[in-house]
């Protein structure tokens, strides 16, 4: 059999050369497409289900949110186990599927079941976490300012509204998270004495704020063959506009928000902070990679996008990269190359010693 194969190869040299060239080209192409990472990702197929309910305690979260969600996803195809965490104002359920189930199919199964879950009034609908794994955290950067007068709240706003949306557009990015800083909010601090004085309730204030912070359509007015769109513009944008919202009337006099409450710019409740290089607080951004993507390619694209964003940022705002998976991957590749060279040299030396012939050892 081997003799016939050798004879066929010798008689059809051009065919063998063409086959060898094609196989080599295919191998080189696949090598360039091979995803390279510092370590293998052994994370199973998981789907996170997150629900936020700021007013509920951990016991209420467990009974009213976590338990119904767990029961709703029971019996799904390929479901292996379900784990959950119930904290103050937050519920997370993690469903682990068999490796034969695709992540897209698993999320579709879970989404269909979640549509049937009944939750308490005022609680937001459950949301699925990003399609990422525990090793998907590939890019960290710090947003800081050289201007001492710029607040940490302004840095957080710049990150959330300028930097973060652009990085989310990079192919292969699952999510970009913000750590540190203060998330801007408009606070209406009600004075109970003023409510009692005018005979109002807290619900009256909430309803007035809700109704007077929206744009609505009013149809069209047609005159002389022209159609004009009628719109009601009532969306507020400043503290003064919020203060001027009318709650109700008392003895024929309009009572506004400023008469019963103080309106101020505040921030979301902070549960942590970020400091960098001993220079005080900063804002940290974390980019997560989609499951199955090439970390080296995604990281390079994130770095390039940050560089292109620099001209659009205020002159005093600086973005420093503090962690880049590409550097780790390059170090690992250098280690592999070093080990391969050392291994090849050791093999040649052993063969040379055993065979006693330089040519045989090199072959």
Short descriptors:
12 helices, 363 residues, Alpha-Beta Plaits, 42% helix, 5 domains, alpha+beta
- The CATH superfamily of the largest domain is Multidrug efflux transporter AcrB pore domain like
Q: Which overall shape is indicated by the principal axes computed on the Cα atoms?
A: elongated
Q: What CATH architecture of the largest domain do you see? A: 2-Layer Sandwich
Please summarize the sheet with the most strands.
Answer: 4 strands, antiparallel
Number of helices: 12
H/E element sequence: HHEHEEHEEHEEHHEEHEEHEEHEHH
Strand order of the largest sheet: 2-3-1-4
Break the fold down into its secondary structure elements and pairings.
Layout (H helix, E strand, L loop, with lengths): L1 H10 L1 H21 L11 E8 L5 H15 L6 E9 L2 E8 L5 H12 L12 E2 L8 E9 L6 H17 L4 E7 L4 E7 L1 H7 L3 H10 L4 E8 L2 E7 L6 H5 L2 E5 L2 E4 H4 E7 L15 E7 L5 H15 L7 E8 H31 L2 H5 L1
